[in-house]
User: Fold these one by one.
Assistant:
Number 1:
Amino acid sequence: MLRHIVMWKFRPGTETERELFLTGLQGLYGEIPELKRCEVLRGTERSDYDAVLISEFADQAALERYKADPRHQAVSALCKSIRTDRAAVDCLLPDGEN
């Protein structure tokens, strides 16, 4: 199992677009079969990042199929138009852990 974690900072004044992005991202869960777990969280006022995605996939190939899916591409395009920073990490989970 692969855990994919992404954090974003957004430009000030993009709150409406931010909510559209985060809601759209959460909406991919159940729509894209490769996405086994999806948690979209908003950062608190004191956080270094504005939002985080914690997601899980069977393996790297499943993550790549998810990234290539047109539904993900559409949501990602909105994010790219409003973000100022992005950080990501992919972690292999020990067998039996999720």
Number 2:
Amino acid sequence: MSTAVSEKSGTWRNWAGNVTALPVREVTPASVDELSAAVRQAAEDGLTVKAVGTGHSFTAAAATDGVLIRPQLLTGIRKIDRTAMTVTVEAGTPLKRLNMALAREGLSLTNMGDIMEQTVSGATSTGTHGTGRDSASIAAQITALELVTADGSVLTCSRSENPEIFASARIGIGALGIVTAITFAVEPVFLLTAREEPMTFDKVTAGFDELFAENEHFEFYWFPHTGNCNTKRNNRSAGPENPVSPVRGWIEDEFLSNGVFQVANLLGRAVPAAIPSIAGVSSRALSARTYTDIPYKVFTSPRRVRFVEMEYAVPREALVETLRELKAMVDGSDLRVSFPVEVRTAPADDIPLSTASGRESAYIAVHMFRGTPYQAYFTAAERIFTAHEGRPHWGKVHTRDAEYFSRAYPRFGEFTALRDRLDPDRRFANDYLRRVLGS
């Protein structure tokens, strides 16, 4: 056996440092068979099992006091099918490695989130998304998946094989089993032209419907305590490639967006009264720019400044009103918020627990610098989001429970019934899943 089993496992921490867990043991399986054996052994020992990715969730979705499965040996591309235009990839593969490998093969995912540190299974299981008028979350691009269930059996799921499991397991929050491989739809690599430019809050909100309709991928950041936003429009381009120059890329994406931003946040944490002034400077630090590159170099950017995040999906038509209420709340409070608020969109999809399930959605993400008290801000923001029938991202801070979700998701009962069938003994349960899905 090449499995690395550690009986004295240490404390597990997520990326933001706001979640810790103390598992009984850690297992790093080198094959799907070894993972199945680890699940069966956990059952014999009466222990729960959770797989962890890179810990980029801000919720305790992956926390366990039982057996912690680390998937870092389950990585790499299993198969590229150029006829079906799909790629099958092991669940522990980081999105960064997948994106780079696909680019070498002249292929790309259609859409992706704004970071690529997560594993493919961690990102899809929590509903990670980018922004898109017509193209949806990463999970919506799945055409098949392989799942190890509570009794250790391995199921292949697609629209034609185990279709009811496939429907739900694309965003399963780890409740239905452990995903071991994912097949994504891909397309020939293409070019995107990104146009980034400052715009006032009033102009963005007044013109949001047009900005959304005219661009394949539109997003913007509003800087609290200011009336300033940064907008980004990504649209397909015939070329030629015109990437950001290495020097300008370093200045803007590393020095300003990470280095200076880190220092500004440290200063803001030490002297909260300075935050509105810092925000005014930050919101004007980045100038307009246009560049053309392959998708992952346009969609994603490095995020080295650590933070805690809450993100809610509201019906797209409710976005502007929700955002104006959020701004009025911040302006009328003594909160000091040093991180911009991120706004994105997604079309409706057919995944039961997707935040965009059955409705066109807009996302509002609020962040606080790590180590700064975030509860007052997030509580006030959450009150506004839930008043607009908001659905929280499964991997980001929220206080909602199963009762709320049973009203927020039309197909919630379909998911929980499948969970009862696949995991009656709750082998994959933890405190978070008990709260959001019921016991």
Number 3:
Amino acid sequence: MIRHLALFTVVDEKKAEKDALIAEAAVRLAPLVGQVPGLRSIAVHTDELGEGNYDFAIIADMDDLDAVRVYATHPAHVEAASFIGTFRGQRAVVDYEI
């Protein structure tokens, strides 16, 4: 199984707006389980410490590397990622075997 870990910063938003955007991202990503072949689970987590850290993480578990490739190009994921792209700053991703 592969874990996909994506970290993001949010640009130019106040705390309440940032939290609302991250919550909406979670709502848009949740239905991907069952739509994207090989995607077993997906969760969005907000950073608790603040200053200097990434603002939120997406953790998704997938069957294998082929499932990661399908996820990356699946229309439902592309749509959710496009929404996140409207407010994200930096991004870091690691895909690793668990």
Number 4:
Amino acid sequence: MTIFVLMCFDKKNALSERMAVREAHLAYIGEHLDRVKLAGPLLDEAGEMAGSLILYEADSLAEVQAFSDADPYKSAGVFERVEISAMKITRGALA
């Protein structure tokens, strides 16, 4: 299995849309805790939520893409873009 980093950037002025689907997003993440190793919001300069960072363990990029595509934030159009990259952990550890 490989760890993938999802960097999800909200479109401009999307905070109200984000908040409208936040509970659905959190429930979705909760359904995938066997694969989600770390998740949380990215913050802007004012400390407001402006995106998401997710570390996801998967066998393939296609699996991660399917997970990303089904995220309620993405379905609701909150994200301007999502960047996905495989990573190799060389320091620290995920439980």
